Every structure is written in C-alpha cells, then in structure tokens.
C-alpha cells in the first residue's frame, strides 16, 4: 500500500489514498494522513472518513476528527447529527468529541450553539447511552456534575447514600480463632490491639531470634519472605486437625 501513497491524479486514486488513513500499517497511515489533510476532498471522501470513526485506534480517530472538524457549519451539523444517533458507541463518542472541540473553540461558538442541539436528538434515538457518553454530555452542557468535586462524588455517585455493611459474626470468630493460634502474643489475641508493639515489630523480633536489632540492620523483605514461608507451611493445618 505504501507505494500508492502519493498525490492523487484522479478520483479513484484519491479514494485509495483516503482509505490508507485507516491502513493496518502505522507508517502508511501517517504518510496518508499528511497528504489527505492538504487535499480538497469530495463529499464521498468525507463519507469514507466518517465511516472510519467506527474504529478504536486512537491515531486513526484523531486524524479523521481533525479533518472533519474543518467542515463548514452546515456540513458539520449534519455530520454530528448522524454520529450521535449511530448504533455504534465509537461513532457517537466521536460526535461528542467534535462538540467538545467546538465548545472550546472561541472562533466557532456560533457553530457550537447550532450543533449542540443534536444531543437532544441523541437522547430520543439512542436507547442505552453509556457512562462515558453521559460524562461527555455533562461536560458539553456544563451541568453541575461537571464541576462536582470529591465531596459530591464527582457527579458519579451519591455520597449521602446509606449503606449498612453486613458482617458474618460466626465467620469472623473463626478467623480470629485461627489468627490467635498462629499469633498468640498479638494484640488481637490478648485483647490489647493497638496498645502494645505492632505486629510487624513482633515479627521482626520473632525472626531475629529475640535479639534486639538496630532498625537499619533488619531486612524487612527477608522477614516478609519468612512470614510467607510460615503461612505456606501451615496452610493445611486446619484440614489436618479436622481429619484427626
């Protein structure tokens, strides 16, 4: 395909060159994009590019959107209308991306004001609007959710929603019992959790033969490996006891 990447002499060559914008080879796509961006395109070429928005490759989408964005107000309005009501989410998000670009372009605010109305047609035509699309729509429309911070759940969830966690008390007692057997001197086992030295400090002492080591001489990674080996060695103790 690369040998065909040259200035087109006729409509057929122009069609082939535009198709190369979505070629499977990255280098070919890049070279084709350079030429297509400088060309005067026919209506059918714009349709070729519009159909490429079904693809997910970011470089293809970026190239195509940058070319389509140069269309005049009337054509861009029709394009965005088609994209927003398409069955494919990739095309709908492309339409929303174009609207977002228009919103940020101070020179095209009149075009934005006209095209943004297409979102209403989208709401009527699309049954299931994805979360990603909803976020883009809120950003385009400047709704309160766009400005929501962490305290407001970023507009994605209700921070005031009530939730009562359910704990299995029987299972928790079983877990505590197993922990007490393996770590009888821990704060959890003695009922002094948080009042005595931390579990990690006790583990250090246990694996350094009770000697008080200086902080910079204790290899914490070695301690953790030893702890992991201890757990692995006793992982079947419960089953063995039940078998007895």
Description:
By secondary structure, this protein is an all-alpha fold. The chain contains 15 helices and no strands. The chain starts with 10 loop residues before the first helix and ends with a helix.
Shape: elongated
Following the backbone from N to C, one meets helices and strands in this order, namely: HHHHHHHHHHHHHHH
Distance between the termini: 73 Å
Give helix % range: 55-70%
Structural class: mainly alpha
Low-pLDDT windows of residues: none
Considering the chains and any ligands shown, give keywords for the structure.
single chain; 244 residues; mainly alpha; 15 helices; 60% helix; 0% strand
In short:
By secondary structure, this protein is mainly α. It has 15 helices and no strands.
How are the SSEs ordered, and which strands pair?
Layout: H1 11-19, H2 26-36, H3 43-51, H4 58-68, H5 73-84, H6 89-104, H7 109-115, H8 118-125, H9 131-141, H10 144-147, H11 169-182, H12 187-190, H13 199-207, H14 220-233, H15 237-243
């Amino acid at each position: 395909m690369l040998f065909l990447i040259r200035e087109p002499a006729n409509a057929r060559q122009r069609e082939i060159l535009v198709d190369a914008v979505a070629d499977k080879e990255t280098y070919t796509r890049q070279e084709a994009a350079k030429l297509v961006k400088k060309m005067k395109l026919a209506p059918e070429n714009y349709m070729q590019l519009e159909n490429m928005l079904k693809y997910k490759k970011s470089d293809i989408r970026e190239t195509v959107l940058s070319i389509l964005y140069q269309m005049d107000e009337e054509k861009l309005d029709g394009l965005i209308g088609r994209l927003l009501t398409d069955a494919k989410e990739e095309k709908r998000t492309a339409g929303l991306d174009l609207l977002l670009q228009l919103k940020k372009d101070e020179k095209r605010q009149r075009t934005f004001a006209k095209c943004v109305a297409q979102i209403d047609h989208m709401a009527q035509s699309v049954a299931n609007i994805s979360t990603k699309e909803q976020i883009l729509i809120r950003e385009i429309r400047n709704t309160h959710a766009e400005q929501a911070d962490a305290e407001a759940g970023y507009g994605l969830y209700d921070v005031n929603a009530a939730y009562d966690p359910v704990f299995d008390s029987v299972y928790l007692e079983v877990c505590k019992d197993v922990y007490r057997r393996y770590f009888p001197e821990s704060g959890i086992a003695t009922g002094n959790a948080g009042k005595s030295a931390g579990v990690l400090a006790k583990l250090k002492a246990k694996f350094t033969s009770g000697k008080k080591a200086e902080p910079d001489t204790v290899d914490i990674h070695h301690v953790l490996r030893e702890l992991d080996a201890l757990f692995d060695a006793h992982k079947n103790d419960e089953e063995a006891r039940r078998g007895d």
